[in-house]
Amino acid sequence: MKKLGILGGMGPAASAEFVTRLIQQTPATCDQEHIPFVLWNDPTVPDRSTNLINGTDFPWKKLKEGVLSLKSVGCDHLVIPCNTAHFWYDRLAKLELPITHIVGSVADELKSLKIYSGTIGVIGTKATMRLGLYQDYLSKHGWTCITPSTYEIDNLVQPAIDLIKSNNIEEARDLLIQAIENLQPWGVQAIVLGCTELPLVVKDKTIKNIPIVNSIDSLIKAVITKHKGQ
Predict the structure, then answer these.
(1) Distance, CA of 98 to CA of 61 (rounded, Å)
(2) What predicted TM-score, i.e. pTM, was given to this entire model?
(3) Are 95 and 11 part of one and the same domain?
(4) Could you tell me the residue range of the domain that residue 117 belongs to?
(5) Using alpha carbons only, what angle is made at residue 99 by residues 28 and 220, rounded to the nearest 5 degrees?
(6) pLDDT digit of tens for each residue in the chain (230 aa)?
């Protein structure tokens, strides 16, 4: 990997957080040791969750445009700091620009914590939960996933994500902590923040001794590992 492409804008704050954390976490001692990247920050991509639930495909045109633009400026690897956009992953991968899958990076992070099996709690957008992005992937690799109930998604998680997008951070945190704590009695080995908006609010590494794995940091860790291996 020589130049990283970041397909962002979904939402803008999550993309900015990804870039900030990438710079902070890269083991560099000077400018030249940082990872070259291009951020394609397009907030006009239609809402992924709404389209998935409605069975429409309006985000595709904008997602494809972003990938092709990043490819045209010489990016040779891609990340998408938006979990729900990964429902378009297989089609985007056909555009011949390698993409690190965000759920795969979370799986690697769970292994690094020596959590190789057991029950994992996952919190994300309504579409990510309902359509099984994490459940499908992690179940194939030895984990069982548990997610908030439909009531909790509708009344705690999705409202919190909407609040983050409108910059109401404190109010969002209260809702998310309640959703996280509601998963703990189910014997979860870890809880995954499966939406890149959530780490803007929940910065804890553990909550009541349960590891919190966020998909921004796991994706960054995967990027740094790939960059070191170039």
Answers:
(1) 19
(2) 0.94
(3) yes
(4) 103-214
(5) 30
(6) 899 999 999 999 999 999 999 999 999 999 999 999 999 999 999 999 999 999 999 999 999 999 999 999 999 999 999 999 999 999 999 999 999 999 999 999 999 999 999 999 999 999 999 999 999 999 999 999 999 999 999 999 999 999 999 989 889 999 999 999 999 999 999 999 999 999 999 999 999 999 999 999 999 999 999 998 75
For residues 208 and 223, state if they share a domain.
no
Cα separation, 34 vs 212, in Å, equals 27
Number of domains in the chain: 2
Encoding tokens for residue 69? 């633009």
Same domain, 91 and 190: no
List all residues 6 or more positions away from 39 whose beta carbon is below 8 Å from its beta carbon.
6, 8, 15, 19
Question: What torsion do the CA atoms of 43, 204, 148, 191 make, to the nearest 10 degrees?
Answer: 110
CATH code, domain with 43: 3.40.50.1860
CA–CA separation, 119 and 143 (whole Å): 6
DSSP the chain: --SEEEEE-SSHHHHHHHHHHHHHHS--SSGGGSPPEEEEE-TTSPPHHHHHHHT--THHHHHHHHHHHHHHTT--EEE-S-SGGGGGHHHHHTTS--B--HHHHHHHHHHHTT--SEEEEEE--HHHHHTTHHHHHHHTTTEEEE---HHHIIIIIHHHHHHHHTT-HHHHHHHHHHHHHHHGGG--SEEEE-STTGGGT---SEETTEEEEEHHHHHHHHHHHHHHT-
